[in-house]
Specification:
- The chain is an alpha/beta fold and 270 residues long.
- The chain has a single domain, classed as 3-Layer(aba) Sandwich (Rossmann fold).
- It is 41% helix and 20% strand.
- The protein is built from 9 helices and 7 strands.
- A 7-stranded mixed sheet has the order 3-2-1-4-5-7-6, sandwiched between helices.
- α1 runs parallel beside α4 and α8 packs across α9.
- The radius of gyration is 18 Å and the shape is globular.
Length: 270
């Protein structure tokens, strides 16, 4: 028996950071490819426990940072992390609602940052979110994405089967079987009003670029992660849930050939 409805709630309760493709490596990849000037207004859609918000602010202190998430559990963890890092006066958080407009004005953001959000939406929700992102971005604004996508050899039937298993085991799918595919993702983004400046798989990426500070400079955020791991170890409920998640993960995912890859993209609003 587990004590969560969705595996993401468990990870939020233990302060887990960078819950997306390639982890912190994926976020650093985006930072390097984003080519930020350092004074932009940035909104992270699906900010999770706030680790990417902190990483952005530490690397570019002049950014105007905000983030939002559907999960109240995630937002609670993000709020605690941001306060723990001394950034609570500099980062604004929003509670988002399913299928409702992002609570930001039209043409108000230079950058929308997204990691592991769009690919898990159904077709209707994906269409809605891409329109909302386009609405809040300024003309020429950047959409910066890290999503885990199905590789071309995976059939829709195979993806659906794996999604069913993951939904049952973890309360969440791996990726939309119809749209979140490596061979058509760029076309989907372009048809929603964006031109693509950069795209590529994160797996082969190694150079972080000279503009990035070391993760060691985010020491408070790392300590926040450590406190979450400690909570997981000493709390019987969290320890039991974590063990179950690992066991289920080995049964559902680890025995299979590679079917997904983390994919980064920088697109610009027309």
């Amino acid at each position: 028996m587990t004590h969560y409805k969705n595996v993401l709630d468990h990870y939020a309760n233990i302060n887990t950071s960078f819950l997306h493709g390639a982890g912190i490596k994926g976020s650093k990849h985006l930072l390097s490819e984003a080519k930020l000037a350092g004074n932009e207004s940035v909104f992270e859609l699906g900010c999770g426990t706030g680790a990417s918000l902190v990483l952005l602010k530490h690397n570019f202190p002049g950014l105007a940072i905000s983030g939002g998430d559907l999960s109240q559990t995630m937002l609670n963890a993000a709020r605690k992390r941001i306060r723990f890092c001394g950034l609570h006066k500099e980062v604004t958080l929003y509670k988002l609602q399913q299928n409702q407009a992002i609570p930001l004005p039209d043409n108000s953001k230079d950058v929308v940052w997204i990691e592991s959000v769009l690919a898990i939406q159904n077709d209707q929700q994906l269409d809605f979110l891409l329109k909302e992102i386009h609405r809040i971005l300024k003309p020429g604004g950047k959409l910066i994405i890290n999503e885990t996508l199905w590789l071309p050899h995976v059939t829709i039937e195979q993806a659906n089967r794996l999604n069913e298993e993951c939904q049952k085991a973890f309360g969440i799918i791996q990726a939309n079987a119809n749209n979140a595919r490596l061979d058509n993702w760029g076309d989907i983004i372009e048809t929603k009003g964006y031109s693509i400046d950069y795209h590529g798989c994160i797996e082969s990426y190694s150079n972080l670029g000279p503009s990035l500070t070391s993760w060691k400079n985010n020491h408070r955020s790392r300590l926040f992660d450590f406190l979450g791991k400690t909570k997981r170890l000493v709390n019987i409920k969290y320890r039991s849930d974590h063990k179950t998640i690992i066991q289920k993960g080995e049964q559902v995912i680890s025995s299979r050939v590679k079917v997904l890859n983390a994919y980064a993209m920088v697109a610009r609003k027309y």
